[in-house]
Amino acid sequence: MLLNLNTSKEDESLLARQLRELNDLEDLQKYVLPLSDCVVPTTASKFNQAVELRQQVEQVLSTAYDELRQGRQLDLAAVDGVIAATVAFMEHQKEIMLALVLLGQYHETTYRHASHVAILLMAFGFSVGAPIDQVRTLGLGGLLHDVGITRITVNVLQKIGRLTARERSLMELHCKLGFELLDQLSGLPKEVPLMALQHHERYNGSGYPKKLFRDHIHDFAMMTSIVDTFSAMTNERSWRGGVTPSLALSKMLAWSQSRFHPELLQKFIRCVGIYPVGTLLRFRNNLLGLVVQQNAGRLLYPVVKIFFDAVNRVPVPQIVINLADPRHRGDIQWSVLRSQKNGV
Questions:
Q1: Would you tell me how many other CB atoms lie within 10 Å of the CB of residue 235?
Q2: 304: closest CA among 29, 19, 38, 98?
Q3: pLDDT value of residue 211
Q4: Most buried pick, 21, 67, 114, 292, via CB within 10 A?
Q5: Which domains does the chain have, with CATH numbers?
Q6: Please, which residues bridge with residue 308 across strands?
């Protein structure tokens, strides 16, 4: 293992217990508001910077995909430059970028999916204490992990609805094709082609293209597998809607012994949190509150800023409460407000 992933049995059981409790508490149809509708005013300028950065990432990736489809060489300098800028921003503003990615519900494009995988991987890297050069590699690999789809026919890529068995076999070639495209580029970290090749491998050997298992899969590829799955589950597809981050994490934890590296998944859950900063909560007394901080050891009980009366539709004096505090135990019944469909 390249990364220090040691967790205690107490940590593992605590996380499993919190997510089991989540299943008991949460209505699975709940959604969150886009962050742009509920962003804390003091973070608005940084949020706007995050939006601009994400747009730059998507634009660079869109251009790169177009170049590859036309048989031209990837402009690695442009890709590397936008990842470097994002790493520099996230080194001090990781939570804002995470909130931007996690709180929008939308029908994602190929470029947005890849940009979000890159951002989540960089946040993941920071959260496990990876050095800056490795965080940057994770960002590059996340941005380029699906580059092999530029070699898949458009009628398969743009099909509305589920793929046939033959079409799925064609789509699965994107891992090998992506590796071949990236492996020939000079100046690219060696881990990046491996992330493209192995991000659909699974911990128990049930993935593709080579049915690798456990330590035969590169750490960064296992991280990409977790992030890619999480991003796919929390965003809409042509044949289904997305689910809340908390429901996605709960399901992924249940699969962790078969599909994902268990310790890596636990680290990822701690990275993104069950109720990300910016989540809008409605309490049983109909007050609205905004999540402003997470409690690392009590992921179900964040710190919330109360600011609005939803029944009388008037602002209330703002107070900050820590839901992990026993004095607020009566406030634990809340709902996450349904998302608007325009996203952020």
A1: 22
A2: 38
A3: 94
A4: 114
A5: 41-272 (1.10.3210.10)
A6: 288, 315
